[in-house]
Amino acid sequence: MIGKVLAERYELIEKIAEGGMARVFRGRDLLLKRTVAVKVLKDQMTGDAAFIRRFEREAQSAAALSHPHIVNIYDVGEKEGTYFMVMEYVDGKNLKEYIREKGRLPVHEAIKITRQIAEALAEAHKAGVVHRDIKPQNILFSRDGKVKVTDFGIAIAGDGVTVTAGDQIIGSVQYISPEQARGDIAGKQSDLYSLGIVLYEMVTGKVPFDGESPVAVAMKHIQEQIVPPRRLVEDLPPALDQIILKSVQKDSAERYMTAEELLEDILYAEEKREPRIKPAHSSYNTGDEEDDDHILRPVRTEEDQPKRVVISPKLLKIVLRLFFFLLIPAALIGTAYFFLSSYVFVPDIEVPDVTDMSQSEAAAALSGVGLMPNSEISYIYDDQIAVGNVVRTDPPAGRIVKQDRIIDLIVSKGPEFIVTPDLVGRTEREAQVILQGLDLNMIVERDYNEEVPEGEIYRQQPGESFKISPGDTVVVYVSQGRGPFALADLVGFSEEVALEYLDEHGLRAVVRKRFTLGSSGHVIEQMPEPGTEVRPGESIEIVVGE
Questions:
Q1: Active site residue: 133, 167, 241, 265, which one?
Q2: Where residue 319 falls among pLDDT bands split at 50, 70, 90?
Q3: pTM across the whole model
Q4: 3-state helix, strand and coil shares in percent for the chain, rounded to the nearest 5
């Protein structure tokens, strides 16, 4: 793509980023003489009408936004099957790179960055656009330090239909909201959750959830509470701790209702004042008390403290005896019931067919019927199923299993590509051994070639470094050396010249002598006759006079 000019206007200079659906290039607007960013849909996506509609919807959503902290969209188009979007070029680092360089950021800097992102989201949400992929990689810094939110790559209109990419969980899994991880519709508060995770990473230097697979991380967003940031950063202001905790509530109803509300608290925190809007469960213990677990506990106020009651030792003894008398039978009954319900009366469930679903969709479908998706994913090559989608399960679809059975997901890595080797100059046998080792077939075409020795390959189809699949065929063209040619008239030439001619043309000379007058040392006859078509290696008889 480098050097290509789209719509006779936008020249692609260098690739600067790549995602699941598109590549982003630094480009040049030849008409307005300015540097731009050009987002180009990948070739494998252009045959899917759903992807094309999503790409066009992205352009329409993003182009409607105009704000100092949102990357501008200049143009969108299609040329010869290449779909592209032309955007403002921001020549600077992204927030992820910045955090990696500095570790955790100073509080005042994290607040300033968050404020600008919140302002951008407030503008987008007001226009009915949900970003759905807020993450540090999509937060850019211009040369003057201004924050720019980019890549509304999975943005949808607020009243539109949810769009999911077939090859991956929508949104980056470390910043994804619980509702997105469950496969539900993402709303404006999903963006606020993701922003809360980004703020968490800025002030602590790490994300709250990580894991061995995307599904494992997504499940943590659904099920696990974050470690309050003040437990990791002791000098973190309580106000900022409260803002983060409110933003990342599992229940969207307990988060900020709007980006404006979040922005209002950020502005108060920037002025080093307590937020006016208290977080959900505002009496959270934020880490000032010593406690090894990660569950947020309410801090008791004076009004909540119970009054002290004095109990006599005799009464206490009676109560304890009665308690243990009742406790032991109850425990035995409870244990027996648990055993029977867990191991005897476990309901049977049919494994649902989740073929061609994304990992998150498949996990939600399995969980929905009472099965447990394995957090460890197996990957295989598949020519039919898109990258990241489920090829099959183990046990397979339709199998009857017990409730809570762990189901393995086997996920597609897409087609297995083999890069064709360079076979030119090799022998037919060498080529056959090489291609067999790569699980490729070979067809041999033979032809005469004056420039290539007999038995050597002089051409192949497809050529070197071409991507093909296992089982495909490579055609090799093997030289038969020089083809048939007309034999020259050697009569009258000296024996030395005749032999030199035959040697140069790969012919074998058979010399006979005959007495003659006046032609000593010269050819007086030849067999076959001049003009006869011969091939290299044939024998030519010449009669030389004595």
A1: 133
A2: low
A3: 0.51
A4: 30, 25, 45
